[in-house]
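Annex B. Sample input.
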Amino acid sequence: MLKPQWWVNCKPLAEEALKVKEAGDAVVLEVRDEGPGLTPAEKARAFDRFWRGDSARSGTGAGLGLAIVAAIADEHGGSATAVNASGDGARFTLELPINAARED
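Annex B, continued. Sample output.
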């Protein structure tokens, strides 16, 4: 069984960047940053394959990370979401059922 919640301090990513908790029949992982947050258009496309936000274009990523997270969540009966965090930055949440029945 998971502890109710725990935090990992990952400065400068965010003061409390990673949160994992058990919520009913699911485990929830939240990752938070202290960037500029997401525009409505960025929130709408954050999980699209090969899409990268304007502030990420200088990096070397291919725009697949969040799309892969969303696909894995969906395959396991869970969900992946992105919202603006209170204050600065964005919060990405992965929710997975703990005891999902598997169909073969």
